[in-house]
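Our preliminary data section would be incomplete without showing what the modeling component actually yields. Below, a chain of 205 amino acids is followed by its predicted structure, encoded as tokens that our downstream tools consume directly.
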Amino acid sequence: MAFKKIQEQLKEALEKQGIKEPLPFQKAILSKLKGGSSVFGIAPDGAGKTTSIIISTLQKLNCAAFEEAPRALIFVKDKEAALALQSEFERFTRRMDLRIYPVYEEHNFEAQKNEIFEGVDIVIATPKRLNKIFYLNGINLGKLKLFIVDDAEFLSKPSPFSDVIRIPESLDRCQYAIFSTKFDSRMERMQDLFMANAQIVEVGE
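Predicted structure:
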């Protein structure tokens, strides 16, 4: 079954990448994300989690830039993961004017603040650096529509987990999506803290 009710520009981008039909996990989760539900997306590697993140984000942002403040925040493990996800996004956004910006410790802090201030749509960040920028008023999350964690296994460590769960405390209305290979105690804690109404979408091996 082909992708249903998605932006024409996004549909064309998928076709250019040779993606014509959703994988089982994508079929299960994309309609929920499109409908505005917060979700835990649990599936093995290769199930299409990263592509689900890209499709749902581009759909939510109407494939177009808007104002200065970011509308999507995606947490990742480290610099390598941030740059890899940015590269994946750019495969789909070549004909779009969306501004995708990676944030990680190895880059100059003041330069990151200035570049964010100039205007971004999607921020792909490590938790530690994003928190530092946020608490020094270097990023406005008041327009945020999507809060995503990719490959959330790295949240098993206390420090990144603490950095991630601090941000929702400052958000009013936002859609949350946590992607991982398993639903564990950290997921249960997030469920208690800010994802009480989230649905669990799980596809096995």
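The radius of gyration is 16 Å. The mean pLDDT is 94. Preliminary results of this kind motivate Aim 1 of the renewal.
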